[in-house]
Amino acid sequence: MKWASVLGITVVVMLITLYEWPKMTKNLKKEKWAFVTLTMAGWLLAVLLVFLPSLPGPNDLIDMIFKPFGKLLQE
Amino acid sequence: MIEKGKISAQQMAIMMYPVIVGTGIISVPAVSAEYAKNDLWISPLWAALIGFVAVYIAFQLHKFYPGQTIMQYTEHIMGRTLGKILGFLYLVFYIQMNGGGIRIYAEFVTGVLLTKTPIIVVISTIVLVCAFAVRGGVEVVARVAQFFFPLYVLSMVVIIVLLFPDLNYKNIFPILADGLIPSMRGAIVPGGWFAEFILVSVLFPYLTNVEKGRKWGMISVFSVMMTFMVTNLLILFVFGETTSRYLYPLFTASRYISIADFLQKLDPVIMAMWVAGSFIKFSVVFYALVICTAQWLNLSNYRPIVFPLGFLTILFSIWGVPSKMVESEYNFIVFPVYSFFVQILIPLLLLSIAFFRRRRPALR
After folding, report:
1. In this complex, how many residue pairs, one in chain A and one in chain B, have their CB atoms less than 8 Å apart?
2. ipTM of the complex
């Protein structure tokens, strides 16, 4: 089941690439790099989340920083 | 410039309205009633002050650096390295905010209507639609907003009119029984939403007439405030003391509508309204995110990164998000402070630095 999810994620990422890649002309070098980096980051994160669904996210960090202030307001 | 489209100031106001109302309207009576009890209708007044401040900050900053978005002048004001770091903070904030908003939307849709659909399907479909709108550019997003706005207002009016027989006006008393403090505390969470008006700083450079930008920004804040006040009053008149017990009061109220056993079950109207509003909201925030990311990376075209960023937004609506987002501590306690910090305090700091730099140009 998990490997099926990975396959599904890979298919989605490939579809995005197939849709977007031909549209980028040769002089858009930077854009290609940005596209590849963001897409790979998305793929990696998605696969990580399939195997470790309780991976601590940015929300947990924000929780840690801002919760004391938030609690202060509720008093 | 990265975006060649132009929008009018009115279109900007129409785009910004659903950014706050879109996801807010369904839960605003409950979150305000939690602290304000039956003074919940006063809370939007306090919360809107933050919205006015946000529009003012954005307009003043744009006057110092005309034709630039918040991403560009952050770099000019803070210097390259610090500007990039602050910019990254903004990007993380907006992708997180949009992810959280989409999560709340999807929880509502799967909770009351599509109970057997996996939540990821609801999330992915709305992001896909938004991505196509964003790919079309600022003009497309503006016209989508313009198209849905009248329908949105109309369905709102219909619901209000049809609820008239169920209203109990005595619920409003006692007014201000415990002074102003409870209504101010009820404004904390909506205040965090009003801070999102700083997004006008991404739209100002694309206005045909920037001078009108401030006026229409203020009009937009004012209409959001009025919408929230009317909604809160309506829900107060229907539910009275028990308002805070409902997760989605407006939706529950719409189920009460029954005119002569003929006009019933109007909850799909609210649902349609909510989906349309959320769609515009996510599109506008998504658009701002894409433009900011492209400027952060110094790209000359933002279209290639729309879909990868959409994919990341989907992940951010799942990654480390509490399972009942709308009732969570994050939504109630953490997000308002986070939002205020990123969207009001940091721009205010930028504005004051820009102000002093402008006064003493010799120091530059």
Report:
1. 102
2. 0.91
Dihedral sign for Cα atoms in the order B311, B312, B318, B322: negative
Residue B255's closest CA among B364, A25, A53, B263? B263
Query: Could you list the pLDDT tens digit for every one of the 364 residues in chain B?
Result: 677 888 999 999 999 999 998 888 888 888 888 888 788 888 899 999 999 999 999 999 988 888 888 888 888 888 888 999 999 999 999 999 999 889 988 988 888 888 898 999 999 999 999 999 999 989 999 999 999 888 888 888 888 888 888 788 887 777 777 778 888 888 888 888 999 999 999 999 898 888 888 899 999 999 999 999 988 888 888 888 887 788 888 888 888 777 767 777 777 878 888 888 899 999 999 999 999 999 999 888 888 899 999 999 999 988 877 777 767 777 788 888 888 898 999 999 999 988 887 766 554 4
Domain boundaries, chain A: 2-74
Please indicate if any CB of chain A lies within 8 Å of the CB of B210: no
Sign of CA dihedral B301, B281, B320, B106: negative
Query: Which domains, from first to last, does chain B contain?
Result: 9-342 (1.20.1740.10)
Q: Which residues of B touch A30 (CB under 8 A)?
A: 297-300
| Residue indicated by tokens 């991976």 | A55
